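Last lecture ended with a question: if I hand you only a sequence, what can you say about the shape of the protein? Today we answer it with a concrete record. The protein is Rhodanese-like domain-containing protein. Below, first the input exactly as provided, then the predicted structure, then a couple of comments.
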Amino acid sequence: MNKSIFIVFLLMATQFTFSQVQDEDITEFKNELSENDMLLDVRTPKEYQEGYIKDAININVKSDDFVEKVSRLDKNANIYLYCKAGGRSAKASEKLAALGFKNIHNLDGGFDAWVNAGKQFVKE
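The predicted structure:
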């Protein structure tokens, strides 16, 4: 295959993968989960213990086993994820899309936006 054709194909495939990620502001982000929804908190375990959104599963995006852990999840589920302010969850969203997850929703502004909007959260 010609190198330039391969590069164009690769770029197109990459754009298709990332188009599955939807950034949602606090008013759009899911408050209640249905059976086919998963809520991921991609912050550190320490941050998670300080407060998290009810029903969130903590999988640290910076941990060495992040890809291994998320690979066990249902790729067809609606995946809602957040971090502190949105940066780490955006990177986690890209990783999920590259792994073949279909429905990814990233909380724009992260947990900080959730708390600042007066939404309820769990604190251990």
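Comments.
1. Helices lie at 3-18, 45-50, 66-71, 87-98, 110-116.
2. The chain has a mean pLDDT of 83.
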